[in-house]
Amino acid sequence: MLYWLTALSDGGDFFNLFRYITFRAGGAFLTALLFGFIFGRPLINVLRKKQGKGQPIRDDGPEGHFSKAGTPTMGGLLIVGALVTATLLWARLDNPFVWLVLFVTLSFALIGFLDDYAKVSKQNTKGVPGKLRLGLGILIAVIAAVWAAAYHPEALQNQLAMPIFKDTLVNLGVFYVPFSVCVIVGAANAVNLTDGLDGLAIMPVMIAASTLGVIAYAVGRVDFTEYLDVHYVPGTGEILIFTAALFGGGLGFLWYNAPPAAVFMGDTGSLALGGALGAIAVATKHELVLAIVGGLFVVEALSVIIQVLYFKRTGKRVFLMAPIHHHYEKKGWAEPTIVIRFWIISLILAMIGLATLKVR
User: Which of 2, 90, 136, 191 has its CA 20 to 30 A from that of 332?
Assistant: First the structure.
């Protein structure tokens, strides 16, 4: 919205700053951060009052989690509210990729909200039926995949870009949409599975989003893409503003989610943020890089898949409990130890993901 202030510029004054994506990204970060600090405590108070007993705790979960009973959920409303407000304020609203990412984020946030509401109102951990959640997620992802393809350059439509290998494209043809759906829905559910300890999911999401934001900015500039030998996707640079807003909103939420958490993000936040990561990856043609940058989420999801399949086949468990962060809880690791070590792993994976921009 503020981008239109450039119409008041004569080319050498303050208003000219609004032409620059990096300046507006800084503004989006600060706006989202302030939003989190200002509205965080009031929102928590409202959620605690409305929810009463807070998020239900699984009976078969780690024993240490029973002390968290009564903690309100739906804290994702704070993150989503901050990043949407900041994005609408600082991004160019004529950019289709900005609206694509906002659409996916808000749609998955709605699914998560309905799931959280069902859990809190019924005081059980089931929420919205899994098949319905999955079906709605697939529908949203199909729309997003078709949307992204429509605005990709013709040479990149239905193509899968390979990291490291210069100028290598794989034509997925009719399989492009199903593949993109798997990326978006998979990312949403992987982040959802990771959100099991105080602060565990939000920092890796912020790290992954920041990395994808840098990638989006790079692939949206023709001079950068020529230097880095990556594919040019016009318009994706504006996604940096969204990711900056996400980082600011995430910090504002982490202020209240740091152990011991005053609020959980719930499915409202985890599904929204995971879906956003997947949508950014699809928009920027860096779907495979997301698997590296978000490798922690991949491992968390795989641990659940392996556990379920192996148990059905043998009646035995590979892990003491899945997702894998609960396995380490069962082994006696302190919660802050698990969280901080997983943050470190996420940062390492982000650096590896960024390296793929130049290693060609």
Answer: 191
* Residue in the block written with tokens 């859990």: 119
Q: Virtual CA dihedral for 198, 201, 204, 207, nearest 10 degrees?
A: -100
Polymer length in residues for the chain: 360
Q: Three-state SS for 152?
A: coil
pLDDT tens-place string over residues 220-279: 999 999 888 889 999 999 999 999 999 999 999 999 998 889 999 999 999 999 999 999
Contacts of 202 (CB under 8 A, 6+ apart): 79, 250, 253, 254, 257, 265, 269, 273
- Which two three-digit tokens encode residue 340? 């901080």
Name 221's Cβ contacts closer than 8 Å, sequence gap at least 6.
232, 237
pLDDT mean over 317-323: 94
Judged on CB neighbours under 10 Å (0-12, 13-18, 19+), 311 is middle
Mean pLDDT of 37-60: 84
Burial tier of 39 (Cβ tally within 10 Å: 0-12, 13-18, 19+): middle
Paired residues of 171 in beta bridges: 159
Instruction: Dihedral sign for Cα 35, 39, 40, 44, please.
Output: negative
Tokens of 24: 């507006």
From CA 342, how far away is CA 306, in angstroms rounded? 20
Which residue in the block uniquely carries the two structure tokens 């794989």? 170
**Cβ partners under 8 Å of residue 280, min gap 6:** 101, 209, 212, 213, 216, 239, 242, 243, 290
Which structure tokens are listed for 64? 């240490």
Examine residue 323 and say whether the peptide bond preceding it is cis (omega within 30 degrees of 0). yes
User: Which amino acid, one-letter code, is at 100?
Assistant: L
Kind and range of the H or E element at 140?
helix 130-151
